[in-house]
């Protein structure tokens, strides 16, 4: 069952909170009225925060922390102040409003945990958030958007990301003998699926038992968890080889083994990006297929995490070209933060995006980065530095010549005496 918060999030953007697969329900369900409350102090972005406040704040703080920007205390306090006593986060809670367990969601909680880990110094809040995720894990090892609903690949992937960030082994987080990896693997298509779908993730199984269909955003987000990653994505081990598709030598109906899950997802994403012109596509019933910036961004992050940045490079380039439209010229905090996280993982120049994101919130305490380490390493020396070096050489020569003349004069005087 879809909650009002879930429907509102999907109505605003199917890409924001993994709502793409939930879109069919929107045709019969009116979206909640938008909030008219002013944007709270300390929050990044100027849009209505009702459905994405914690989401966009968490992404922004994660990206800025990774850029070595120290955010304002008000920005961090707003995020920590959204946490409920039981450890979970809602999508948004107005100042002074009480927490309601039914409005807390795993997506907001998962990204908030990752943001606080990236910022450092918030271990009690992180521990409470992780405990909330453990307490609200489904019996099959998965997570739903709101507790009490069937699990989905996006929410499960984000929860696993948070566990990795908090150094809580997902293999040890279990319910009824099913751990987090089991829950994630239940959404991945294996050898029983057509060859061109193997490795993909479905959003949710069809309750009516219909055929399982790959979902672009579900695959992009779940693949990061399958590869053992979290936000921000670290640029670690790399391989020149293309990702390996499933070998399919065992039983056709067996779940994808966790050891093969990340590579299988990477192989599927690589094939989809190649076929789609370096981007993934959003398909919603009743609407024409359209490029999906958010799914493409998560796919790029997942490929980089799995050690295949060369397979992600085309998507990163495509996102750079489309970034102005997606981020609404740098005014959409969630999109800007996501694009910045992609460029950071791909080791691209991040100065402009960092400045744009910083401008969407309260002034930072210190250290707004203007260029990436890679750009700084290849930058030409400043002209003043070169002039300074030449002056040192000239002064040294003058001192040497002057010293030689003085010594010569002294010798001549000695000879005359």
From TrEMBL:
Q: Which residues cross the membrane?
A: 390-409
Signal peptide range: 1-27
- CDD domains, per database record: ISOPREN_C2_like
- Kindly state which keywords UniProt assigns to this record, in alphabetical order: Membrane, Metal-binding, Signal, Transmembrane, Transmembrane helix
In terms of SUPFAM superfamilies, this protein maps to: Terpenoid cyclases/Protein prenyltransferases (SSF48239)
Q: Which GO terms describe its molecular function?
A: metal ion binding
Query: A Pfam family for this UniProt protein?
Result: SQHop_cyclase_C
The Squalene cyclase C-terminal domain extends over 53-144
The name this protein carries in UniProt is Squalene cyclase C-terminal domain-containing protein
Q: Which organism does this record belong to? A: Streptomyces rubellomurinus (strain ATCC 31215)
Lineage of the native species? Bacteria, Bacillati, Actinomycetota, Actinomycetes, Kitasatosporales
């Amino acid at each position: 069952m879809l909650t009002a918060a879930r429907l509102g999030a999907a109505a605003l953007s199917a890409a924001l909170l993994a709502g793409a697969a939930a879109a069919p329900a929107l045709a019969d369900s009116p979206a909640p009225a938008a909030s008219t409350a002013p944007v709270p102090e300390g929050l990044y972005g100027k849009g209505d925060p009702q459905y994405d406040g914690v989401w966009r704040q968490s992404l922004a703080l994660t990206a800025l922390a990774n850029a070595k920007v120290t955010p304002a205390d008000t920005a961090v306090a707003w995020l920590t102040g959204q946490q409920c006593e039981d450890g979970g986060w809602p999508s948004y809670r107005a100042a002074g409003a009480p927490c309601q367990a039914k409005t807390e969601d795993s997506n907001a909680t998962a990204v908030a945990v990752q943001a606080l880990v990236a910022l450092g110094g918030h271990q009690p809040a992180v521990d409470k958030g992780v405990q909330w995720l453990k307490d609200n894990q489904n019996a099959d090892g998965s997570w739903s958007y709101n507790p009490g609903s069937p699990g989905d690949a996006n929410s499960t992937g984000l929860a696993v990301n948070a566990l990795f960030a908090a150094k809580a082994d997902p293999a040890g987080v279990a319910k009824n003998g099913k751990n987090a990896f089991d829950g994630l693997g239940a959404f991945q298509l294996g050898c029983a699926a057509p060859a061109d779908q193997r490795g993909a993730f479905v959003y949710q199984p069809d309750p009516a038992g219909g055929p399982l269909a790959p979902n672009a955003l579900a695959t992009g987000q779940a693949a990061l968890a399958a590869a053992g990653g979290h936000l921000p994505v670290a640029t670690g081990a790399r391989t020149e080889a293309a990702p390996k598709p499933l070998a399919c030598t065992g039983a056709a109906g067996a779940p994808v083994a966790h050891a093969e899950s990340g590579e299988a997802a990477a192989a599927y994403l690589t094939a989809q990006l190649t076929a789609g012109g370096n981007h993934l596509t959003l398909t919603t019933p009743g609407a024409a297929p359209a490029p999906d910036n958010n799914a493409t961004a998560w796919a790029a992050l997942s490929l980089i995490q799995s050690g295949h940045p060369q397979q992600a490079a085309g998507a990163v380039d495509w996102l750079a070209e489309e970034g102005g439209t997606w981020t609404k010229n740098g005014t959409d905090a969630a999109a800007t933060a996501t694009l910045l996280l992609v460029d950071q993982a791909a080791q691209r120049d991040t100065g402009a995006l960092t400045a744009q994101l910083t401008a969407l919130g309260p002034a930072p305490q210190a250290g707004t980065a203007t260029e990436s380490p890679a750009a700084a390493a290849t930058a030409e020396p400043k002209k003043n530095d070169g002039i300074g070096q030449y002056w040192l050489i000239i002064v040294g020569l003058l001192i040497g010549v002057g010293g030689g003349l003085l010594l010569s004069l002294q010798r001549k005087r000695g000879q005359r005496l």
